[in-house]
Design a protein that fits this description.
Blueprint: H1 6-19, H2 31-38, H3 41-48
Length: about 60
């Protein structure tokens, strides 16, 4: 499942970093914290690896 916006891709990257232990879970907030709690590492990898060349900054843009 590819990310639908740059913001979503960045949030997934932050959540993935915490999931792997590279950053503290307590540093997460908002969407990245929700993603950390509800998604698997594989799902986060899929979202975070989306190329963001053609993505809007936010979903509604």
């Amino acid at each position: 499942m590819p990310a639908q916006s740059e913001a979503q891709q960045k949030a997934a990257g932050a959540a993935l970093s915490a999931k792997r232990g590279d950053t503290k879970v307590s540093d997460l907030q908002g969407a990245s914290k929700e993603m950390y709690e509800s998604m698997s590492e594989k799902e986060l990898e899929d979202l975070a690896s989306t190329r963001h060349d053609d993505l809007p900054e936010k979903k509604g843009d």
